[in-house]
Amino acid sequence: MGQKLAGLFVIGAGFIIQGLVTISGIVSARLLGVEGRGEVALVIALGGMATQLTLGGSLANSVAVSLADRGVRARDGLRHLVPTWVGLGVAGSVPFGVLFIFLHGDPGATYVWWLGFMVVMMALQGMGFRLVTNALLGESAPMNRVAVATLLPQALSTTTLVILFVAVRESTALVVTVVMATSLAIGLIVSVLLLRPARLPKDDETDRVEGRKLWRMTRSTYVSSIGPIDGLSLDRALIGAMLGTAALGLYAAAIALAALTSTLASGMAAVLLPRIAGAQRDPAAEHRLVVRWLGATALMLAVVGLLVAAIAKPVIEIAFGQEFAAAVPIAYWLIAASALLGYRRILIAVLQGRQRGGSASWIELALTPVVVLGIVVAARMGEPVGAGIAMFAVAVCAVLALGVAVVRTAPSRRVGRHARGVPIAAARDDD
C-alpha cells in the first residue's frame, strides 16, 4: 500500500507541477513575446545544465541512496559536507553565466550581464534544491513534507507571474527570471526547514556519511544521473545558439506541453531509486517491484502522452497566441520523445539501484553525440521541428538499449563498497 500511495503522490504532484509550468510558460510568453520568452528559456536551460553537471545530478541521487542505505538523517549525515558543496557550487555556476553572455550575442547590453548573473543564481539554487529534496527522500520524510518541498517553488513562481501579468501586461526577461529565482530561493529555505532535526550533536561522527565513499558513488553513476540526452538542455542551448532566441521561444512553448510525461517519470524515478537500492537483499521482491513499476509507468506515460497530443494544437494556438502556431508540429514530436525519455529514467533508476549505473552511463554517453548531431543538422536546415524528430529518434534508441541492460542484470544481493557496478580500483581508494 505504501508503494501505491507513493506512486499516486508522484503522479498527482507531477500533474500539478507540470500544470503550473505550463501556466508559467503561457503567462511569460504573453508578458514577453517570442524574443523575450527565448531569453528566459536560455537562462533556464543554462541554469539547469549547470545544476545537472555539478551538484544537482549524480551527487543528489547518491545522497538519497546513501541516506536510505545507512538509515540516517540528513542533518546528521551530511552537514559536515555542506561548506565544501557551497564552494564547489559557486565555482561550477559562474562559467555558465559567462556562457549565457557569449551565446546571447549582445555583451554590450547591461541587462544581458544581469541575465547572466541570474543564470548563476538559478544554478546555485537548483543544486541546493535537488540536494535537499533528495535528502528528504533518502531519510524517508513523510510524503506531505516532500509535497510541500516539491510544489512550493513552482506554485510561488506561477502565482507571482499571473499577478504580474494582470497588473502590467508586459514585462522583461530580467523581471521574469528574478521572480523565478526568488521563488526557488524561498522553496529551498522551506525545504531545509522540513528536514528531520539532528539526532546527534555536531561533534558526534557516528552517522556521518563518508565524503570519499559518497564521491565514489557519484563518479560511478555520473553520466546516467545527469542524463545528458535531455538533462543538460543541450537541445535548447544549441537551438538558441544556432537559430536564435525567437526559434528557441517556439521550441520552449512546445516543451512546456511535452515535458509533462518526462516530469512525471522523473519524479517516479526519484522515489523508485532508494526503494530499488533497499530491495537488493531480496531478489524476488526486487523483481516484483521492478515489474510493477515498469508496467505502471509505461501505461501512465502512454495515456498521458496521447491526451497531451490531443490538446496540443488548441492549447498552443489559444493560450500562447497565433505567433506560436509554428510550435505545434514541434510539440507533437517532443511529446512522443518526452514520454520515451521519461521511461528511460525509470530504467536508469533500476540499473542504479542494482549497482549497475555504469552500464546506463555508457549508453547515455554513446547517444549524447547523436543528440548534438541531430540538433546541428536541424539548425543548419533552419527547421526547429527537426530537433524534435532528432530527440524522438534518440529516445527510441535509449529505451531499447536500457531495456536490454535491465533484462540482462539482476539484483546485486548486497549493497556496499564492493557491490557490483563500483569499480574495484575505486573501492581500493579507502583501503
TrEMBL record:
> Primary place of residence?
membrane
Transmembrane ranges? 7-28, 40-60, 81-105, 111-133, 145-167, 173-195, 293-312, 324-341, 362-379, 385-407
What InterPro entries does this protein map onto?
A: Poly_Biosynth_Transport
What keywords appear on the UniProt entry? Cell membrane, Membrane, Transmembrane, Transmembrane helix
> Could you tell me the membrane topology recorded for this protein?
Multi-pass membrane protein
Give the UniProt subcellular location, in the record's own words: Cell membrane
Q: Which domain of life is it from?
A: Bacteria
A single Pfam family, by name?
Answer: Polysacc_synt_3
The record, for PANTHER family, names:
O-ANTIGEN TRANSPORTER-RELATED, PST FAMILY PREDICTED COLANIC ACID TRANSPORTER
Q: What is this protein called?
A: Polysaccharide biosynthesis protein
